[in-house]
Amino acid sequence: MDIRVKICGLTQPEHVAAGAAAGANYLGFVFFAKSPRNLALARARDLALAVPVGIAKVGLVVDADDAFLDALTGEVPLDMLQLHGHETVARVAEVRARYGLPVMKAIGIATEADLAAVAEYGRVADQILVDAKAPAGADLPGGNGRAFDWTLLSRRRWPCPWMLAGGLTPANVAEAIYLTGAKQVDVSSGVETAPGRKDTGLIADFIAKART
Strand, helix or coil at 197? Predict the structure, then answer.
């Protein structure tokens, strides 16, 4: 199947190489201090420069202000910004216009009522990341290894392309794609042996399972 895969939260050169070798379409880097996957800009620049041409380099930020985004986009060669906080529709449009980069907006889903936001943000974002809603009081807005009821997405259509995230692993990604009809999937903690510690074998297995 022609499924596009994003490996997010990369911190080591060998895992960037593993994602590229296994056929990932997107490689993601996290810029959020509370995350075990957080990167300094200089480190992220080195990793991004090692990504082969043709693979999109995605920078994940959480409620970042212009000063930080100026520094990030000025130092790290990114192809897309992923907004994973409480950014408003207006802020998404502003970031997209200011930086001239495609913007992916993450939307947390727990119940059917949460799906309205996908259509709302889909009018201004280039892509939507449909993720599991973080539990109350969680430090991280994503990367928590939580899934949601995938049947909520069955037969849904939105104004822009979307990507499925939330609790995906090599063991369940095929089922998730079958139940949701997703054409794109995102994984972070599902290919880790510990928070922030990716595994080359799990990366390759995830991509293979997503496409079979």
Answer: strand
Measure the CA–CA gap between 160 and 149, rounded to whole angstroms.
21
205 catalytic? Reply is no
What is the model's pTM? 0.93
Q: Which residue range forms the structural domain that includes residue 175?
A: 4-210
What contacts 25, CB < 8 A, 6 or more positions away? 4, 5, 6, 55, 56, 184
pLDDT digits (tens, 9 = 90+) for 73-116: 999 999 999 999 999 999 999 999 999 999 999 999 988 999 99
Q: Is 160 a catalytic residue?
A: no
Q: Is the CB of residue 8 less than 8 Å from the CB of residue 30?
A: yes
Choice among 8, 46, 63, 114 that is catalytic: 8
Which of these is catalytic: 131, 149, 199, 205? Answer: 131
The alpha helices in the chain, defined as continuous H runs, are: 13-22, 41-49, 66-75, 89-99, 116-122, 173-180, 200-210
Number of domains comprising the chain: 1
Q: Residue 20 belongs to a domain with what CATH number? A: 3.20.20.70
